[in-house]
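Quick review question:
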């Protein structure tokens, strides 16, 4: 296990993260279709994070910070990364924390890749939670393989119903931040254009 550096103040970390997303153009404004086919006025694309080491490092610090904050309530034997971005982030968190990693198989639906000891607690790691269906599929695969799932951790929660979807399965969704909090932070820092702020607000209002 590698030594984990002292975490920065959460507010400062959130600000750095938001600015990093804008810098690498990971926050896109326009008309997009989410994984369930619904139309959204913005898209958070974390797939490109790994191509920007500085931004990727900040994202990992955010995820690790959220994990550390919940450590008293979450003590997983395994991490399960949701392909693709959740798996990439989860693999680094696995390395930092010295926790074994598994992930859902795309070739064989309903199964997992990696060694999972039956009865072991698994924490699911996702990059951006939307409706929660990707996490739901992972929960079913883990449980069918004998694992126990009570918690999931997302870097960003878009507040599109994932928490409700997971609660129906007895799983609690944690996140480092939400799109609403991220937007407010960037607005305070005057880092968002009017168009970006309007799109984020529209997305949040549509959900609520």
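Suggested answer, residue by residue:
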């Amino acid at each position: 296990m590698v030594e984990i550096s002292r975490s920065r103040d959460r507010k400062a970390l959130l600000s750095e993260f938001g600015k990093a997303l804008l810098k690498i153009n990971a926050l896109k404004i326009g008309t997009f279709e989410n994984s369930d086919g619904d139309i959204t006025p913005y898209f958070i694309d974390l797939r490109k994070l790994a191509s920007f080491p500085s931004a990727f490092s900040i994202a990992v610090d955010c995820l690790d910070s959220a994990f550390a904050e919940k450590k008293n309530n979450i003590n997983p034997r395994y991490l399960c990364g949701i392909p693709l971005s959740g798996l990439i982030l989860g693999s680094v968190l696995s390395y930092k924390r010295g926790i074994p990693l598994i992930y859902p198989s795309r070739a064989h639906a309903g199964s997992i890749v990696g060694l999972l000891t039956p009865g072991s607690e698994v924490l699911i790691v996702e990059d951006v939670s939307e409706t929660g269906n990707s996490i739901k599929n992972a929960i079913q695969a883990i449980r069918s393989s004998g694992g126990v799932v009570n918690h999931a951790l997302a870097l960003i929660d878009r507040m599109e119903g994932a928490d409700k979807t997971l609660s129906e399965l007895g799983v609690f969704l944690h996140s480092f931040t939400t799109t609403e909090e991220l937007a407010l932070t960037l607005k305070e820092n005057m880092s968002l254009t009017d168009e970006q702020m309007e799109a984020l607000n529209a997305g949040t209002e549509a959900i609520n």
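Why it works: The domain at 10-207 is CATH 3.40.50.2020 (Rossmann fold). The first strand starts at residue 27 and ends at 33.
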